[in-house]
Write a structure and sequence with these properties.
Layout lengths: L4 H14 L6 E5 L6 H7 L5 E5 L17 H6 L4 E4 L2 H6 L4 H13 L3 E6 L3 H5 L3 H12 L5 H4 L2 E5 L13 H19 L1 H6 L1 E4 L8 H5 L6 E2 L8 H8 L27 H5 L1 E4 L5 H6 L9 H4 L63
Parallel strand pairs: 1-2, 1-8, 2-3, 3-4, 4-5, 5-6, 6-7
Helix pairs in contact: 1-12, 5-7, 7-9
């Protein structure tokens, strides 16, 4: 979601009633940093969680100017963080090493990490897709214990199918998801491999989600462009169509972190329904697309529209939200939750956006 604060909140609130009865999956949306606190507050008590699009590599407060620690994100109401999205790897120098550090820091802050992997077209055409993804997995998940892996969600992003209109065939998606599961089994054992949720993220749309979700090892979707409109995203979360009805029955587990299971309905539908995201470059280059709408000014009489620093959402947080220093040790005036307090701030983050959970394909 690369929208400004007002539009981001409007989209989240429009989505809220559309997916209120979706108890078959976990729904997470990923706004930009500047909208996290406001949206988390406005969604409090709903079945929609909030994810950050990126995070810093450590949780200690100090001289880390410009970085946002995972602990700060949890304090702002986040329950998930998207880490290593393809756009961050491609445009912002994200490496397996930095992904690994951010993943450890996210888990230490008590949140779930959505770790992204995926190959480029040239790597696939050269026959190296599986080896590239395995190398990314090995580096990104290094040092994680079995207990840590219970709070890891893996997202497979075929880079050649992101924003191109191309989609991996269901068979291609299944092949790579099966390979990813086999890689996890080698590093963390069969129990974790069977339980870990693996999302597909490559131009997921309402008209192809049912076919993709029908694959054995595809447990959910990382949604991009189709998540920017609430109705489109809701159609992915709960299609309500005969062609997808079998996927979303009342027999599905609604537990957010339940084991994936093995060869059962539970194994296919403890689905992280989606999360979308856009890169910082896009958000900074397209401010003219939206007006600088303030939630406060658009509805000044609604106290819920304010960014109460003491209102914590997805995860219980310290009531003294604004007292923790953010970033540079010499910049004591910066609040720890340095986003929703400034309604006019342009959308400025890169990796997640407006989708169910587990961001932009």
């Amino acid at each position: 979601m690369y929208k400004l604060l007002g539009e981001a909140v409007d989209t989240a609130l429009e989505l809220k009633p559309l997916v209120a009865n979706a108890n078959h999956c976990e729904i997470v949306i990923g706004p930009v940093f500047t909208a996290l606190k406001t949206i988390a507050d406005r969604l409090e008590g709903s079945n929609i969680h909030v994810a950050a699009q990126n995070c810093g590599t450590q949780n200690d407060f100090g001289a880390h100017t410009g970085e946002i620690a995972p602990a700060m994100l949890r304090d702002a109401g986040c329950s998930h963080v998207i880490i290593g999205h393809s756009e961050r790897r491609q445009f912002y120098g994200e490496t397996d090493t930095s992904v690994n550090k951010k993943t450890h820091a996210t888990l230490a802050a008590g949140m779930t990490a959505i770790v992204c992997v995926g190959e480029h077209l040239a790597e696939r055409e050269a026959g190296n897709a599986e080896s590239v993804v395995e190398e990314q997995l090995t580096g990104s998940l290094a040092g994680l214990t079995v207990a840590d892996m219970e709070r890891i969600i893996i997202a497979y992003e075929p880079v050649w199918a992101i924003g191109t209109g191309k989609t991996a065939t269901p068979e291609q998606a299944q092949e790579m998801h099966g390979h990813i599961r086999a890689c996890v089994e080698k590093t963390h054992g069969s129990e974790i491999a069977n339980a870990v949720r693996i999302l597909y993220g490559g131009s997921v749309k309402p008209d192809n989600v049912a076919t993709l979700m029908s694959q054995t090892d595809v447990d959910g979707a990382l949604v991009g462009g189709a998540s920017l409109e609430a109705e489109s995203f809701a159609a992915i979360v709960q299609p309500g169509k005969t062609d997808a009805g079998a996927l979303f029955t009342s027999n599905v587990s609604s537990s957010a972190f339940a084991p994936r299971g093995t060869a059962t309905v539970l194994s296919k539908v403890t689905i992280v329904a989606a999360t979308s995201f856009m890169i910082t470059a896009l958000m900074l280059s397209m401010p003219a697309l939206t007006g600088n709408v303030s939630v406060l000014s658009s509805n000044p009489d609604d106290p819920a529209a304010t960014t109460d620093a003491n209102a914590n959402v997805a995860v219980p947080t310290d009531a003294n939200t604004n007292t923790a220093p953010a970033g540079d040790a010499n910049s004591n005036a910066a609040p720890a939750t340095n986003a929703p307090a400034t309604n006019a701030a342009p959308a400025s983050n890169a990796t997640a956006a407006n989708a169910p959970a587990p961001a932009n394909k």
